[in-house]
Amino acid sequence: GNDGSLSIRRVNVQSGLRVSGAGVTVDFERSCYNAVIPGAGPCFYDLLFPGSELPGDGRTLLRLAGARVMEVIHTRAGQDVPVLPVGLCLSDL
User: Fold this and answer.
1) What is the SS3 assignment for the chain?
2) Rounded distance between C-alpha atoms, residue 61 and residue 74, angstroms
3) Residue 34 to residues 2, 44, 59, 73, 79: CA-CA distances in angstroms?
4) CB 60 within 8 A of CB 71
5) What is the pLDDT along the chain (93 residues), one digit of tens a residue?
């Protein structure tokens, strides 16, 4: 919303989700859920991701707990990020 908050609507995260905030809406498609090798677009991860590190490689990751952004991580080329036991992680909005 206008106060810097995010709006996340989902029924089943594995089917995809929509994130809105700051006048922008991003749709995360089912095909980018827990992507071991992410493509060029946005992807998202939850606790069912099979590895111990998320692919960073120059992408920006947002760790969420509920609808609250807990951490923003700007990665370098070749850098991966440890999986933490918290809600969702969005990559490259």
Assistant:
1) CCCCCCEEECCCHHHEEEEEECCEEEEEEHHHECCCCCCCCCEEECCCCCCCEEECCCCEEEEEECCEEEEEEECCCCCEEECCCCCCEEECC
2) 7
3) 29, 6, 15, 17, 17
4) no
5) 556 666 655 556 778 888 888 888 888 889 999 999 998 889 999 989 999 999 999 999 999 988 788 999 999 999 999 998 878 999 986
